[in-house]
Structure formats: structure tokens, C-alpha cells
Amino acid sequence: MSDRLTRVLMLCSGVGRENRGIETFFADAFEGLKDAPGLDLRLGIGAGVAGASQERIASLSRLHPLAKSLGGVIGRDGYTIEQVSSIPSVLAKIRRLEPHVVFTSEANLAMRLKSLRSFGGVPYRLMYSNGAPMRGPFPWADAVHQVTPTYRDIAIEDGDDPERHILVPYGFTVPDVPPDRSIARRQQARRNLGLPEDRPIVLSVGWIARRHKRMDYVVDEIAHLPAPRPLLAMIGAMDQTSGEVVTEARSKLGAEGLVARSVPPSEVPTWYAAADVFVLGSLAEGFGRVYIEALSQGVPVFCHDYPVGRFVNGPEAAYGDFSKAGTLTGLIAKRQDLFAEDPFGDRRRWNYARDNFSWQALAPRYEDMFRNAANGPRRA
Questions:
Q1: 2: pLDDT strictly greater than 60
Q2: For residue 14, what are the CA distances in angstroms to 73, 92, 188, 315, 363?
Q3: How large is the angle between the packed helices 107-116 and 87-97, nearest 10 degrees?
């Protein structure tokens, strides 16, 4: 590659449509890296108005009835159809922009782009960001962006080429100054959200469901705390399975003991500001972006004890075996100190997030990652 700048086309059809971890990462990465001196970035989005250096990718939304119907015919979901339907538009963007690297977390799109690359006339490198994650191997990717050592090591143990894998954690927009976590600030945030000011708040952010995020586990553990219990705030995406979880939660915690909502991304920082502690019931995550979102706001984290959680949170979480009933209940009862004012701890958590996961800290590593991918082998 002779160009001074590495041209990278970032593709995520869900940007503008969804607010899951992958979509959040691609949107945030574009903002965090667009001014990096060694990169020329373009972001392909699925919906909304394309801003500067952004490209609108035409595709059929995963939520469209036709996408769901077509997915049912082939035994896949609407998201697969969304990715596949974006291919003509993506190929047109590649021909026009001539990127050195095409970067995506959408496996169905990536696999098909690899098979079509010889027809496009642009010798780009295909880099797959494995945040979902997949185990591998990845014969259809020239390079793989791994965000934790866990899934990199799994892929290599399963026989994939170690040279294909580049470890760089997810990056985040971390506040420039330490958060104000005083009781007065928490109360102000609660007033803004219409929450009670006179009781502790446990926050969980993620898909409100039994599967994966295990919101029902968090509900049961809070329900077993002695009265007066904290308020549990569950904030995240809801689907057809969420209503049952919320109904059961209200029966166990009482109408005054639970808040369950989907909120716009711009409102989420206020929920962190209002919370005393954060918990995620998951037993496994590809990364768990919400951990760093919480720590960057100074919020103490309760986390299942597993390798990815340890890699992401380091020393800044209270760990326990969440596969066992009673673990979170006991951990919260034991760590009541985390509900109190602790300016030193708040600043330490913010420092940890800033020093290890902010774009300021990671941008040089992302530049190197894209440059190495662009100069690396173009695998058959």
C-alpha cells in the first residue's frame, strides 16, 4: 500500500436502525477515529441521514415483514436478509471508494463479499470484527479484529492462523473529566428521570430477556434482599419475550420496586448518573460494552466471574459466580460500601476506563491494526 492514509470502509447495516453493542461500536468508532492522522474513514450506515464521510447503504431492514418472510423461507432471520440485501449497494461503494480495508462485524455480509471480491476489481483486505463473537476459524477473512484474548485464543486453538488475528479492545468515548457521583448529583439525575430519590438503585442495561442477559436472574437476586430493597432499573431493548420477564419482575419486586424501559441512547448516561451500582447477569459476553460504559461514569460494577469479564473490568468490579442462586444477593449485601459516596473510587474507575479503553488511548492501536491489515496477505 503506497498511500499515506489507510482508507477504511466500515460497514454496519444496523447503524441508524438498532442500538445493540455492534451498532454502538461502529458509530462510536467512526466518531472516535475519524480524525486519526493515519486514517481515511468512511462509515456505511443502514438508515438515517448520512453525515460527512458517511455512506447510506441500501438494504431491506431486518424488521420489514418481507425480510422476516424471506428469512423464514431459508431458515434464517431478518438480520441475515438485511445483510445479504445490502450487497449490491456495498459493492458499488467499494468500487467508488476503493478502500484498502473493508471492516465489518456482519458475518453473512463478510462471507459473501469474500466470494465476490474477485469480480469487483478492488484489491481490498476484508477484516472481520469479532465482537459478537464467533469461535472461528475464519477462512473467509483476511484479518480478524479480536476484542478480547478469549476468542482469539479459541480460534487459534481450533486451528486458525494466528497471524490472521489482531487483538485491540473495543474503544469508547470516555468523559473528559471525572464524573460527579455525589449523592446530590445522583438525586438530581433521579429527579430528571422521575425516579425515587430516597432508595438505592441497581441498574442493569441490556436486552430485557431471560436468554443471554439473564435479567430474570438479577430480578430473583434483588427479590431475595431484605427489605427495604433497592429499586431495580432494567434499561434496554425489548422484544416479544420481554413482557413476561417484566410481569414476573413486578410480581416479585412490587410495582414500586422496578423500572423497565427502552430509552434513546442520549438518555442512557443519565441512568448511569442516577444509579448506585451496575450489574449484568450474563454468564458470557463477547466483550460487554456496558461494563465500560458504567465504569467510565464511575459506577461500581457487579460481574459474573469469567475470563472476558476479568479482561474488561480488571480490578474494578465485584465478581461472583452468577450461575448460582444467591451469589449476587450475597455480593450486594456484602458490598454495601459500593452504594455510598466514594469520590476516590469514582475517579479510579473513570481513570481505568479512560486509560485502557478510551479512543485517546486506543486510536494509535487501531491505526496500526488497519495499516497492518491493509499491508497483510490477501487470502484466497
A1: no
A2: 22, 19, 34, 33, 23
A3: 60
What type of residue is 365?
R
* CA 328/CA 251 separation, integer angstroms: 20
Q: How do the residues of the chain divide into helix, strand and coil, expressed in percent and rounded to 5?
A: 45, 15, 40
Q: What is the pLDDT of residues 294-326, one digit of tens each?
A: 999 999 999 999 999 999 999 999 999 999 999
The answer to whether residues 292 and 358 touch, using CB atoms and an 8 Å cutoff, is no
Burial class (CB in 10 A: 0-12, 13-18, 19+), 11: buried
- Whole-angstrom distance, CA of residue 54 vs CA of residue 48: 11
Nearest to 115 by CA among 341, 353, 312, 379: 379
In this structure, what C-alpha cell is assigned to residue 373?
491489515
- Per-residue pLDDT for 66 more than 80? yes
C-alpha cell at 173: 468515548
Q: How far apart are CA 287 and CA 294, in angstroms?
A: 14
